[in-house]
Amino acid sequence: MEFKTGQLTTSWGAPVGDNQHSMTAGSRGPTLIQDVHLLEKLAHFNRERVPERVVHAKGAGAHGYFEVTQDVSSYTKADFLSEVGKRTPVFVRFSTVAGELGSADTVRDPRGFAVKFYTEEGNYDLVGNNTPVFFIRDAIKFPDFIHTQKRHPQTHLKNPNAVWDFWSLSPESLHQVSILMSDRGIPATLRHMHGYGSHTFKWVNADGQAVWVKYHFKTEQGVKNLDVELAAKLAGDNPDYHIEDLYNAIDQANFPSWKLYVQIMPIEDANTYRFDPFDVTKVWSQKDYPLIEVGRMVLDRNPENYFAEVEQATFSPGAFVPGIEASPDKMLQGRLFAYADAHRYRVGTNHNTLPINKPVAQVNNNQRDGQMRYDRNGGNSVYYEPNSYGGATESAASRTSSFEVSGSAGSAPYDNNDHYTQPGNLYRLLSAEERGRLIKNIVNAMIPVEKDEIKQRQIAHFYKADPEWGNAVAEGLGLRVTELA
């Protein structure tokens, strides 16, 4: 909608007679409390910043569309994937993870890759990263992990001791650490990186048959990364480099695009695959489960207002539509609660009624009231269910499909603790030059760590993944290999 300028008004629509001078008792004052326009301006100004996201605070966003290019209806009954050529509007938010709202874009960090599909059956949010794995695999460790990425409570400085202490005591992090410290740790632009759902999800077709699925968005611009020195220079010269690049590309009609592929695993394979398919620190071999093309995503429209669209955009991996469901991935299970709860705190309990988050599908629920409820608040419709007055009712066809669970209730770890095979394979896939840069990045990041005990513990993980890797890091840190035993 085009915004037209006109007479200045208060927030309640009354015209403003003087926006240059406060109402005072005489020319010297003091200021009168009856100047409600002044009070409103100051009070609103104090509240113009909603609390920033605990993680993924700084980001860029854009509108676009997703178009189905291959028939996947045999795998899922999701309507927006139901036929070739079907287009669904999307909003995508890219972000760094650990930094604050004013941090630099070109730091070494994973990038958030969140897609909101405005489908005719409700919004579907796919909230992932630019990496196929994550640092931890159980949500109970997430607050502790993020604390290590934030600032020391006394010095208010980033703390490499905490970072490497946690990683060295959490060997499941090695796969993601390997990617983070590689060339892929600093993407050249947001357009030149892949995106992943990371977790395993479940697809269910119209006949009730289910499969496990992983999402891969492959950039059509090609993968490009930044040299470490150039990234550091840009962090000082233009800390908003990635935001600017995305905006300018779309503004110049150089629309970025990604092809969406999925890996499909039969339900029964989950019990026999050599890695736990619900462990988000692991990938599925594409030799075992090849990529299947689904569609193409294009971003072709910049936001009109950053705060209204990018900052107030809320994504939750629990925003599903019929045909797409959760898996028992422990990290995903925790995120199903944590993300929506963060939005209720940060933006408000009615965050899904904001224009950027509002579904194109009709919403019929019994949620009422709460702060910032600006719509009809359900009007005079029935506000409970079940009811005898023609109110909204449940739909048996939309029930979540079942899957078998077993075991005793308790705090249980994953069964498979092989944290070294996949990182080792990744290391050996790199060229000699890429391995050299990986080792240099790791050594430079670990030099500030005060305790050799932490360094040695982390080096042991690299060594177990590949002896050459561990030896090279140890040498770079001036440690003796014999100390690794």
Strands, total number: 10
What is the helix content?
A: 25-40%
Structural class: alpha+beta
The dominant shape is globular
Summarize the main sheet.
Answer: 10 strands, antiparallel
Beta-strand content: 15-25%
CATH level-1 class of the domain at 59-138 and 186-359 = Mainly Beta
Order of helices and strands: HEEEEHHHEEEHHEEHEHHHHH
Instruction: Assign the CATH topology of the domain at 59-138 and 186-359.
Output: Catalase HpII,  Chain A, domain 1
CATH superfamily of the domain at 59-138 and 186-359: Catalase core domain
CATH architecture heading of the domain at 59-138 and 186-359: Beta Barrel
Low-confidence stretches: none
Radius of gyration: 25 Å
Span between termini: 66 Å
- As an assembly, this protein is single chain
What this model shows, in words?
- This protein has 485 residues and is an alpha+beta fold.
- Among the domains are: 59-138 and 186-359, Catalase HpII,  Chain A, domain 1, CATH 2.40.180.10; 421-484, no CATH class.
- The chain is 26% helix and 16% strand.
- It has twelve helices and ten strands.
- The protein has helices at 36-46, 142-149, 160-168, 174-181, 228-237, 241-251, 306-311, 330-346, 421-429, 432-446, 452-465, 467-476; strands at 59-68, 87-96, 111-119, 122-129, 195-196, 201-204, 210-219, 257-266, 292-301, 324-326.
- Strands 1, 2, 3, 4, 5, 6, 7, 8, 9 and 10 form a ten-stranded antiparallel β-sheet that branches.
- Strand 6 (201-204) and strand 7 (210-219) form a beta hairpin.
- Helix 3 (160-168) crosses helix 11 (452-465), helix 4 runs parallel beside helix 9 and helix 10 packs across helix 12.
- The longest helix has 17 residues, at 330-346.
- It is globular.
- The mean pLDDT is 92.
